[in-house]
């Protein structure tokens, strides 16, 4: 009797566990509404309206990225984390260089265009003996630096 009980109990328990597996899929129409609205399931719980457009939800502060269709309304699309004006500061506190980076990551050092490349999320560019590195993750503080291979000096780069 014990052997029969074990032979039927294990498959029955396995079948019961499989039938209780949660369904992770969402409805196709609901997914389309989320995509159109720019909402996520979490932001919807915080008030993001899935029946509105990305632009409307962006104005309400729920969508962090500006939709492409609003580019003509002054929205900045694909904003580079490196974009802006920067100052390379020397060890004594003086200005080593003024740097300008646009949204397409075209770099000018003291008004002269230089070639830049991405390296592990950072933007790296060189002018003469000086190599500049500006990190892409703006949460990293104090990581934007420059180094002069000739004079063997280094310093920080700060946003202007």
Terminal CA distance: 82 Å
Number of domains: 2
Instruction: State mean pLDDT (0 to 100 scale).
Output: 79
Q: What's the helix count? A: 4
Dominant shape: elongated
Please tell me about this protein's structure:
With 160 residues, the chain is of the alpha+beta class. The protein folds into 2 domains: 26-78, no CATH class; 84-159. Helix content is 24%, strand content 28%. It has helices at 2-19, 28-37, 41-45, 54-59, and strands at residues 84-89, 95-101, 107-109, 112-114, 116-119, 122-127, 130-134, 145-148, 153-159. The chain has a 9-stranded antiparallel sheet, with no helix packed on it. It is elongated.
Which key phrases capture this entry?
alpha+beta; 160 residues; 2 domains; 9 strands
Helix-strand blueprint:
Elements (H helix, E strand, L loop, with lengths): L1 H18 L8 H10 L3 H5 L8 H6 L24 E6 L5 E7 L5 E3 L2 E3 L1 E4 L2 E6 L2 E5 L10 E4 L4 E7 L1
Antiparallel strand pairs: 1-2, 1-9, 2-3, 3-4, 5-6, 6-7, 7-8, 8-9
Compose a concise summary of this entry.
It is built from four helices and nine strands, in the order H-H-H-H-E-E-E-E-E-E-E-E-E.
